[in-house]
Each structure stands twice: as C-alpha cells, then as structure tokens.
Amino acid sequence: MSLLPVADALKIIVDAITPLADDLVPLAKANGRILAQDVIATFDQPPFDGSAMDGYALSSDDGAKGNKLQMVGVSAAGEAFTGTLKAGQCTRIYTGAPMPKGADCVIMQEKITSDGDQVILDDDVVAGQNVRNKGNDFASGDALLRSGTKLSPFHLALAAAANHAQLPLRNSPTLTLVATGDELVPPGSTLKKDQIIASNGVGLTPLFVQFGATVKDGGIIKDDRDTLKAELKRLLDEEPDILVTTGGASVGDRDYVKEVLEELGVELSFWRIAVRPGKPLMFGTIGKTTIFGLPGNPVSALVTGTVFVVPAIKAKLGQDPSHKIVKLPLHGNMSANGPRQHYRRAKLIISENGSLSVDPNMQSDSAHLTSLAQSDCFVVQPPLCAGKGEGEMVDVLLMPWANS
C-alpha cells in the first residue's frame, strides 16, 4: 500500500471538518477565544473632530507665528465649546475635546505665550495640525475584527471601544485523549519491570488546549482487544468532537486500534502517511466525532499531533487550518531526506546582530524526547530532498512558544 502524501492527508482532514456553533460571550471571558463572526463598526470613532493635544484651537488662517489671538472659551472632553470662532479668536482645548466650529487646527500649549485672555503664537500652525479627524480610528461599516481571529487583549480593547459588551465566539471543540499499551503507567508511578511512563498525554493535552480545545483525559487502555473495544465504544458514545488515541496504530500482533475502530463503525479515510516521524497514523469519522489514531512513540505522537490534529482543531474553530511556514537560513548542515516528508526537530538561533537562523537536530529516533524538548520549531524537509548546507534557506514550522 502506498503512503499518502502529507498535503493530501491534510486536505482530507480539513474537508471532513464542520466548524462548531457559536455563543455570545462577555468580553471579560473572551481572551484567547475564537471569533465566530466579523465585528463591524456601527459608528465613527472618534465621533467628532477632536484635539490630539492640550493647547489652543484656532483657524489656520490665523496660524502665522507672532499672531495675537483672543481666547473666548474652553473646549474640554465631555464639555464642548458651543460657540463659533471668528477671525482672531481661539479657545483653550484639551486632549480628546471636540474642535470648536470655525477651528481647524490646534497649537500645542508649549508653543504659545499667554497674556491674560490674549494668546501669542510662538510657532506657525497649519490646517489639520494636532487634530484627530472624525472616524480616524474606525468608521461606521468598517470590519474591525474578522471571523476566525484568536482574540488578544488588544482585540478586546478595540471591541470595547466599538461598544460591544459581548462577542459571538466559537464553542471550544471537546477532545478526548486516550493512550493504549500494557507497558504504560502514569507519571509518578513506581516503575516495575518492562514498564514505561506514559508521557504522550502530558505533552499533547497542553498542545491541544493552546489551540483552543477542551481536553478530557480518557486514561490508559491495556492491549486487550475486548477491553479496548469496550472502552473506545464508551468514549465514542460520549460524542466528543475529536477523539485521539496514541499507540496501537501500527500492524503488530497487538495493535488492535484500527480493526476495533472499524468494528465500531468508524469510517477510516487513511492510516499510513508519508511523514517522518509518524507513518502509522489513522484518520476517520463517526457521527459528529473526528478520530485520530496517533503512533505511540512520544516524538511521533507529538509531531503528528502538531501536524495533523492541530489543523483539525483550528478548522473546528473556523480558523485558517494551514500551518504558518517561514523561510530561514540553516545554521549548520542538514543531511538528505528519504521518501517521507520529515519534520526535523530544530532550534531557532538569534545571532549577535539580531538575525535569525535555524539549527536542525540530526536526531531521528521517534522516542528521543530530549531532542524534541530542545526544539522550538521543525524544519519541514520534503521527500527525497538533498542535503543542504549552512546558509541555505529552508521551510520552518514554528511552535507557539518559540523563543518565549
């Protein structure tokens, strides 16, 4: 059986996803959530021409250095000057206050000399100077935030300024994560002969949470066919949006996950990918649930979780599911690649002059977590790519915590 190219696998995954419903959420609880609809401005901001400085509002016709003007009032934020300026007149004005009628510029208070109610200009001032025009920040009808945006504190401040107390946000996809294997025990256990610590869930859970999923720990299932079938049926009956298994995805005598999922009615779209690490990877659906069967080796699980599961989470949230790839020069040499697309563990390097490069790790063992922990990105090396030398440009997939 030929291996499915990575790009084809990702297309199958994304095409199978339906974005989740949305709900109105108060701004105080919206940080980090995903916007479900565009936010459109319903008014101009600012709603009037206003001053950007503390100073004096006047007509630019009177704006020549040395002119003496009569101050006839004050315009403050929340309390505008109600009259109309005539030639030779000005008003005191404060930052954010509306411009008086007849005024089209503001001279800074540091650039005048006052003499009672007389103001002498110590500098020239021209039309529009130190004025915030109506709609300068945003105008009615402007799209302020786009659907699919992951909301930051800056986005929330803009939404608040546009008078939105709550926003329509995508519901978080529910994701159940389960490990399989007789040898696995939880972290903190006293290891017995032939046992290893189950580390996949510890890494995958915060990875999926970081991209917006709500993760449930489905525990560890032993390599017993009947037990596996009963437990997976129980988890599927809960109808999570996504079910992720790790381990048992290959073709060994005790790798039951594929056949058990098919017996439970899961329609598998693929299970062998031209990717390194992580060739034995399953994807399927049943009802509303999207299912991934990831390899058991920890590096393979974490790489395939990043490459394949994260785009599914983003698609569920209505976001662009594609990986953000940047081009960077190599810091050191990189060996040739075989027939599978290789996500090489790598580290960003910032030089003394501030330039950025990427240092690939030549470790390729799919259980070697130390090398993965030292990485903050992957070099995406296409199939049959020849080796590359220092300074050559490569594709790099950054992790969200890169250089944090």
How would you sum up this structure, described in words?
The chain is of the alpha+beta class and 404 residues long. The protein has 4 domains: 6-20 and 172-316, MoaB/Mog-like domain (Molybdenum Cofactor Biosythetic Enzyme, Chain A), CATH 3.40.980; 22-45 and 137-170, Alpha-Beta Complex (Molybdopterin biosynthesis moea protein, domain 2), CATH 3.90.105.10; 50-132, Molybdopterin biosynthesis moea protein, domain 3 (Molybdopterin biosynthesis moeA protein, domain 3, Beta Complex), CATH 2.170.190; 325-398, MoeA, C-terminal, domain IV (Beta-clip), CATH 2.40.340. It contains 7 helices and 26 strands. The chain has helices at 6-15, 153-161, 200-210, 225-237, 257-263, 298-316, 369-373, and strands at residues 22-26, 39-40, 50-51, 55-58, 68-75, 89-93, 105-108, 112-115, 118-121, 131-132, 143-145, 166-170, 174-180, 184-185, 196-197, 214-221, 242-246, 267-272, 275-276, 280-286, 289-294, 325-329, 341-350, 356-360, 377-381, 393-398. Strands 7-4-6-5-9-8 form a 6-stranded mixed beta sheet, with no helix packed on it. The radius of gyration is 31 Å and the shape is elongated. The protein starts with 5 loop residues before the first helix and ends in a 6-residue tail after the last strand. The model has no long low-confidence stretch (mean pLDDT 94).
